[in-house]
Amino acid sequence: MKTDILVVGAGFAGAVIAERFASHGKSVLVIDKRSHIGGNAFDELDSAGVLVHRYGPHIFHTNAPHVEEYLSQFTEWRRYEHRVLSSVEGNLYPVPINLQTINQLYSLSLDEEGVAAFFENVREKRTPIRNSEDIVLNNVGRDLCDKFFRNYTRKQWGLDLSELSPAVAGRIPVRTNSDDRYFTDNFQSMPAEGYTRMFERMLDHPNIRIELNTDFRNVRNKVDATQTFYSGPLDAYFDFCFGKLPYRSLSFRHEHFAQKEQYQPVGTVNYPNDYEYTRITEFKHLTGQSHSGTSIVREFPETTGDPYYPVPTSENQALYQSYKKLADAESGTFFIGRLAEYRYYNMDQVVAAALLLSSKLLNNPR
Ligand code: FAD
């Protein structure tokens, strides 16, 4: 099988590369081992006709105008600002922690300055910051750490906050103002007809051929490509020669409620301290769909299963670096996306990385 470009994986990384090279006249073969395009952003109508995200809630947000412009060629958008509540001792509080959270939780009526002083009073100063526990205690002190962060982290990662790199908790902001939006990016919107429809448009090009249910392992010696773009797991590409790169997995339990218009007040409710699941997302908040029933998903963290989150510890980074050395030496093959780069990437970051790589290679072919 001859092609200019072989793209392994039809998620954001693979779809952007495929579209860019096809638009520059190259023949592109896209393979994916799943039965659909879209990678983890894949959405579909469930049996009741509600648009759901099979692999958990995906909310698009970006500060990169070129990413927004690029994707806007393939979709209209519906403005959506995600809001999350956290269930603590039977009450729902806004997260990220902000002025409203503090006032509601401790029955106070502080203004911004008062909340800043509150944090200053309760924080436990930590230097140096060596792990995620140090970050949280340093920012908000022990009570908020134990109510909102510690148990959620243990469920999500199977590790204590103190065992995780500072980057994990560092991603979660703490605000002194009353902004209760989960993200603060300039552009926050959902593809109006869903992600899958957007991917269909990206890949709808006469130079692109798509083969689903096709694992790279089974075709790697059969495809004759000038360049390969691989967005699958890096350790699998090298036959796990240094051992497995650890991932945290999730199982998703979807449920539909007929004749119930709304299940919960916002898109996502976190359950840091109760139940085995970490959070529940109700899709109609995200998509704006009208329907007499509603559909939700519960997320249960797992040790085994599909790879979702690279586990961010220093040992795992060292293992990744061993694989990366092999990847850098592989001529004609480029490793891109969250699995091949073993890092947590938001969707817009993957799009930006794929646009950058394709523009470098297309303007400067080797
Ligand atoms: P993927 O989407 O995973 O695509 C990789 C593709 O490669 C897959 O389709 C896979 O089947 C295929 N593949 C793997 N191995 C092989 C093989 N051997 N042969 C053939 N095909 C193969 N980001 C946000 O910006 N906002 C969010 O709200 C958000 N929510 C998330 C929620 C969850 C639960 C998770 C896990 C992630 C979330 N993300 C979110 C991150 C988002 O999923 C990623 O940024 C995005 O999916 C990365 O795209 P990708 O192309 O790198 O990987």
Task: Produce the secondary structure layout.
Layout: E1 2-8, H1 12-23, E2 28-31, E3 43-45, E4 51-53, E5 61-62, H2 65-72, E6 77-79, E7 84-88, E8 91-95, H3 99-105, H4 112-122, H5 132-157, H6 166-170, E9 187-191, H7 195-203, E10 208-211, H8 216-219, E11 224-230, H9 234-237, E12 247-257, E13 268-270, E14 279-282, H10 283-287, E15 294-302, E16 309-310, H11 314-328, E17 333-335, H12 347-363
Parallel strand pairs: 1-2, 1-11, 2-10, 7-13, 11-17
Antiparallel strand pairs: 3-4, 5-9, 6-9, 7-8, 12-15, 12-16, 13-14, 14-15
Flavin-adenine dinucleotide binds next to helix 1, helix 8 and helix 12.
Could you characterize the architecture of this molecule?
The chain has about 375 residues and is of the alpha/beta class. Among the domains are: about 180 residues, NAD(P)-binding Rossmann-like Domain (Rossmann fold); about 80 residues, no CATH class. The protein contains 12 helices and 17 strands. The strands form 4 sheets. The protein has a 7-stranded mixed beta sheet with strand order 8-7-13-14-15-12-16. It has a 5-stranded parallel beta sheet with strand order 10-2-1-11-17, with helices on one face. Helix 1 links the parallel strand 1 and strand 2. Helix 1 runs parallel beside helix 12. The two termini are about 20 Å apart. The model has no long low-confidence stretch (mean pLDDT about 95).
